[in-house]
């Protein structure tokens, strides 16, 4: 048979050459971030990231600033626990709780007026004003101290009141024409402020009531003062309590009568 007359067998349905479409596999949609999604900043243990603006103001003074937290932000540096080691002679030491310590916090800031070409010298003076006493102590008056401060913003324990225990100045940028600082980095070393507790005056000890002593023959006020008050020189105290007495000698008419002796 001629090759031209050869016929190819017909293709039947279901043969292996039939193209079958597969259903498309849908990828699960990415879950939207929720409030419970951990923030990338959660790895920063103990402090907050920089970039936030905070407001610092003095109590009882007009000083105040608005500043930006630096990269390290604000972090607590002390105040949790106050254990002490107690030594035991020829024995093992032990730990003893000595009470709570005040919180301490470092706040790294940037006073930034560079973008607006604004001097930050006034802000720097305000910070220094918060950290220094307003003047010398007046004669006979109460001591003059730097003011406590409050912080509003993203810092730990923003509900507490603080005092500035120290200032560390960092890098700066100055205006080439005027020399004024346009940007200044600084670190505030803060200590928790607790108002001093005033201890009331101790009540004066009550004096013992006077004692009644019967005068015997040969007595005089010096002898009575030495016998009952410990010193003969205290006889004028007996005179003050008894009308009719003038000196340390007792007239004969006082024999058998009663005199008052001060209580101890």
Quick structural gist:
By secondary structure, the protein is mainly beta. The protein contains 3 helices and 10 strands; from the N terminus they run βββββαββββααβ. It folds into 2 domains: 45-135 and 144-192, Beta Barrel (Elongation Factor Tu (Ef-tu), domain 3); 211-261.
Key terms for this structure?
264 residues, mainly beta, 2 domains, six-stranded antiparallel β-sheet, two-stranded antiparallel ribbon, elongated
Characterization of the model:
By secondary structure, this protein is mostly beta strands. It folds into 2 domains: 45-135 and 144-192, Elongation Factor Tu (Ef-tu), domain 3 (Beta Barrel); 211-261. 10% of the residues lie in helices and 28% in strands. The protein has a 6-stranded antiparallel beta sheet, covered by helices on one side. A two-stranded antiparallel ribbon has the order 3-4. Strand 1 (53-58) and strand 2 (64-78) form a beta hairpin. Helix 2 crosses helix 3. It is elongated, with a radius of gyration of 44 Å. Residues 12-18 and 30-50 have low confidence and may be disordered.
Strand order of the largest sheet: 6-1-2-5-8-7
Question: How many structural domains in the coordinates?
Answer: 2
Give the CATH architecture of the largest domain: Beta Barrel
CATH class designation of the largest domain: Mainly Beta
Mean pLDDT, to the nearest integer, reads: 82
**Would you list the SSEs in sequence order as H and E?**
EEEEEHEEEEHHE
- List how many beta strands DSSP finds: 10
The portion of residues forming beta strands comes to 25-35%
From the 3D structure, determine the CATH topology of the largest domain.
Answer: Elongation Factor Tu (Ef-tu), domain 3
